[in-house]
Structures are given as structure tokens and as C-alpha cells.
Amino acid sequence: MTKYVRAIYKGAPIWGRVKDDTVVLLRRAPWIDRSESGQTVKFNRRDLLAPAEPSKVILVGLNYHEHIKESQSATKAPDEPVIFIKPNTAVIGPNDEIPRYGFLERQDYEGELAAVLGRPIFHASEWEVRQAIFGYTCLNDVTARTLQKKDVQWTRAKGFDGFCPVGPWIVTDIDPTNLKIETRLNGEIRQSGNTADQIWNIFILTKFISDVMTLLPGDIISTGTPQGVGNMAPGDIISISIEHIGTLENRVKSA
To answer: Which of 2, 30, 46, 140 is the most buried (most CB within 10 A)?
Structure first.
């Protein structure tokens, strides 16, 4: 298991491999080139950026049975994955604040496991999918719930700037199909689930999505949220913790 970070160093973004309390600098993004520059810097969470610069973020709705019940948007699990896209302008990092837009009646957190692609794939086999996924991270699928119900399709409700916190880093070589996931609102657990409860796991989802579109290195695929989603207010702190990965924490601010 290796942890890769993207961070600010001397005013510019860098990639690195975390080693104890230091970051070993890489020459490029680790899915392109894992060769090291030979330089190390002290690890500081305050310098972390979103650990990918995706061309797109593809997400899935209704992937946990209990969340389907609370969403009231379906009476049973769909026959195949329900996918949607967030623009890359929605992506923010672990040190960024989630904008709380005053004109939105309700703005929810949704803690999720996400995968970062390391190779381009299209019409991929499951074996090719497993080779193409570089690693895993945490994601908050922020949602304007009232707009989601109003619009039927989800682009507007999911696509605002700042509606896709990702991080704090990418972890490789873990089993994504049996990971505990929890979301805390101001320290209180609001979501608690396990990726073993997903209707479709990350490998099935990625294969399904690759039959629709080309996935590029750095693209992010998120796997849906357990039950317990809820509204956020300015000043709230949302923490998403996933076993073997870590915790993505963001404060909410008025926008």
C-alpha cells in the first residue's frame, strides 16, 4: 500500500510519495512516471491539493439499497448503474472550503469511495479495468437536493463549482470491495456503511462506464453513497473517512 499526494511546494503543484513524515518528490503524476527526483520535503497536510486533475468525474447514483430507500427516487434498485458527470471545475481539494450557495434550499453531503484511472480505456474487459485503476481516494458528492428532484436529470444539482471535494491522497494496492466508510458532520457520525454493500463494485462500474466513453488517466470514478445523507450549513465541517485510505475534511462557507 502506497500513498501518493499532490501538494503545493514553493508556489507550484508537485506530486510525491509519502514516506513517514516526508514526501519524496516525483517527476510527474505517478500513473505516468513513478521515478523520483531524489528530493524530499516535510509532509504537511495544509499543502495538499486534490490528488488528481481529471478531464471528467463520473459518478453513480443509487448504489446502496438503504440509500435508495431514503432517497425516495426509486422503489427498487435500478437494472443497471445510473451514471452522471460532474465537470472538472467542481473539483476542490482537502484544504478548500465547500461553498454553501444561499439560493439553494438544501445542499447535501454524500461520502463516497472513488477510484483514479491510470491508463486510458474504452470497451475494457474486467482484467483491463483492474489494470487501469491506479488507486483510491475519498470523495464528497455534494448535491443540491431540491434541484435534483426538480430537474429529474442531475447535471445542475451536482455540477456547481466546489461540489466535488476529493482527497486527501491516493492509496494503491488495497481491496476496494470491503472498506468501511463513514461521514461525520461536526464530529457526529451521519453515514456508516461498507463498500461490500454496494450493488455494483468499482470494477463492474468502471467496465460499464468504459462501454460508454473513453476514460483517461487522472479521471475519477465515484461509487455512490450509503444512507444518511444530509444538509450542510455554513461553518459545518464534513469529514469522510474510508478504511485504509484516510479522512477527507472540508469546512463549509457561505458563497
So the answer is: 140
